[in-house]
Amino acid sequence: MAEETGRPPQKQYDYLLKFLLVGDSDVGKQEILSELDDGASESPFCSGSGKSYKTTTILLDGKRVKLQLWDTSGQGRFCTIIRSYSRGAQGVLLVYDITNRWSFDGLDRWLKEVEEHAPGVPKVLVGNRLHLAFKRKVGERDAQMYAKKHRMAFFEVSPLCNFNILESFCELSRMALQRNGMERLWRSNKVLSLQELCCRAIVARTTVYSIELLFNLI
């Protein structure tokens, strides 16, 4: 019994990644964060001092990936926050509002900050508030071309409908793991059996907390 007590606590994840959300202050970055499950009681979603922080855990190809998500304020005086929190960042979500052309036209400024303080990190361009497409001021094709020009993945998302939120973080996680050479530790080019495909389909539709509960039952 004493030996069990002395054991270090088992990690609740396989990989840990730090991501930044950057963009103007009114593009809805906190809306995006609010749609993600809060994955750690020791670091709940909080805001203040021009930044918000949240952790969540996602499943990626059967592996648990814990994300540390930092939302820097979009106000110019908080550019120093980007400089501080970009250290060690492994991915960036560049967010604009599809109903606000000015937020899209200002992306170059944020991209310059990111490249200066976190050069070469994977980036995903996110067009927020797709549920307001009837007020659209930024064409999807314009955003796709911008993303392609700067070698970014691209998603239009809607926190209201929970559309493409998780997908954008999964894609950024996959890009970050590929860049750091970690994805090769579990990905394989072999043809999957029907049983493996079924297992992956079940895992993809099950929350990480439900899977942990299943492991405990086993």
TrEMBL record:
Q: Name a GO molecular-function annotation.
A: GTP binding
Q: What is its main location?
A: membrane
Q: What SUPFAM superfamilies does the record tag this protein with?
A: P-loop containing nucleoside triphosphate hydrolases (SSF52540)
Query: Which Enzyme Commission numbers does its entry carry?
Result: 3.6.5.2
Which pathway does the record list?
Protein modification; protein ubiquitination
Obligatory cofactor(s): Mg(2+)
Question: What keywords tag this UniProt record?
Answer: GTP-binding, Hydrolase, Lipoprotein, Magnesium, Membrane, Metal-binding, Nucleotide-binding, Palmitate, Prenylation, Ubl conjugation pathway
Organism domain of life = Eukaryota
| Catalysed conversion reaction | GTP + H2O = GDP + phosphate + H(+)
Protein location: Membrane
Any keyword Nucleotide-binding?
Answer: yes
Annotated signal sequence is: none
**Regions annotated as coiled coil:** none
The record, for PROSITE patterns, names:
RAB (PS51419), RAS (PS51421)
Record membrane topology: Lipid-anchor
In terms of InterPro entries, this protein maps to:
P-loop_NTPase, Small_GTP-bd, Small_GTPase, Small_GTPase_Rab
GO CC terms of this entry:
cytoplasm; membrane
What is its EC class?
A: hydrolase
- Similarity field: Belongs to the small GTPase superfamily. Rab family.
* UniProt name for this protein: small monomeric GTPase
Say which species the protein is native to.
Answer: Popillia japonica
